[in-house]
Specification:
Elements lengths: L13 H33 L10 H26 L25 H17 L2 H30 L1 H9 L31 E5 L4 H13 L5 E5 L3 H9 L11 E4 L2 E4 H9 L17 H13 L1 H5 L19
Parallel strand pairs: 1-2
Antiparallel strand pairs: 1-3, 3-4
Helix pairs in contact: 1-2, 1-3, 2-3, 3-4
Length: 326
């Protein structure tokens, strides 16, 4: 019996998870998509097994491989950023991933890898490689997937079961699954205590800030974020609780649990939780913070002159008012 154990990755910065994912992909692609198919091709040739061909075979293979590679890269980046882990079972995602390609199919990385393998087989004209890919699909579906899904169920419970019912394993749903947390009886989503909420404090008279909050609401499918004016009594109280100067910050402030983030780090941690493709911008976290914050401070210092002021919060509407705290 095969004993495959899934172990969540240790807490680590997103750039480290991205680096590990890139290394794992490089090793996987080299071994399973190049070395093994080439050995199969050589073996077929040595025993005089013929190879198939058809018009535009190379173009078809390269086009399919490129598209599948893009899907695989998209999946890996999403796993590293939204899942806080890597595709490796012994270093798997700490959080349930339901964004990016995972919104449309439950196992986009497996779909990508199998499609890549099939395209390599077509490139070689190798029936043996295509059989190798088919055997890999059967093994993954019958052996690996049940173990993986049992692990996800044990860690995420009803959230995973709801996701599993909404998104199919192999056949994409191009409308995307309904993966959001159900609303409770009050019409709010997510946690209901201020301490549990992820809160964004912003300057409600800044036109750029208001436009940014509107953008976040539009792309926050999971309704993770709640908002409060930095100038409000609640906003000032939250700043004081986190030891931040109520009057000294020309910055957006992100509150996640007991942690407060400001300037460019807050902005990047926000975009990592929006729907695709915006989490890709989180890759800028690898830029030294002093440089990121210098750019951010220049924008913040000139925000009124460049973008103007508003006499009211334009992001607050009848549809969004339950996301604003007061």
């Amino acid at each position: 019996m095969i004993r495959l154990r899934f172990r969540p990755a240790r807490p680590a910065p997103a750039w480290w998870n991205l680096a590990k994912t890139i290394l794992q992909a490089a090793v996987f692609w080299t071994i399973f998509l190049f070395v093994v198919p080439w050995l199969i091709f050589v073996l077929e040739t040595s025993v005089d097994i013929g190879h198939f061909s058809f018009p535009q075979q190379a173009l078809f293979a390269w086009a399919g491989f490129t598209l599948a590679s893009c899907l695989g890269i998209w999946s890996g980046v999403t796993m590293a950023i939204a899942g806080n882990g890597t595709p490796l079972p012994s270093d798997t995602a700490r959080d349930l991933v339901r964004s990016g390609p995972y919104r449309y199919v439950r196992n986009p990385m497996a779909v990508a890898g199998l499609t890549q393998g099939a395209c390599v087989g077509i490139w070689f004209g190798s029936c043996g490689t295509l059989f190798y890919v088919f055997a890999g699909m059967v093994f993954w579906n019958l052996v690996v997937r049940p173990i993986e899904e049992a692990d996800l169920h044990s860690r995420f419970g009803d959230d995973f079961e709801r996701y599993k019912r909404s998104v199919r394993c192999w056949i994409p749903s191009f409308r995307g699954g309904d993966c959001e947390t159900p609303e409770n009886s009050s019409g709010h989503t997510g946690p209901q205590t201020a301490e549990d909420r992820t809160i964004i404090l912003f300057d409600d008279v800044c036109s750029l800030c208001n436009a940014s909050i509107t953008f976040i609401i539009r792309h926050d499918r999971m309704k993770r974020f709640y908002f409060a004016s930095r100038q409000s009594v609640l906003g000032r109280d939250i700043l004081a609780r986190h030891g931040l100067d109520c009057d000294g910050y020309d910055t957006i402030v992100l509150i996640e649990g007991e942690r407060a983030y400001v300037r460019s780090t807050a902005a990047l941690r926000i975009v990592r939780q929006l729907r695709w493709p915006w989490p890709v911008l989180f890759g800028f976290i690898v830029v030294p913070r002093f440089l990121r914050d210098w750019i951010y401070d220049r924008l913040a210092a000139n925000r009124y002159r460049w973008f103007g002021k508003s006499d009211r919060c334009t992001a607050l509407t009848d549809e969004t008012k339950n996301r604003f705290l007061s």
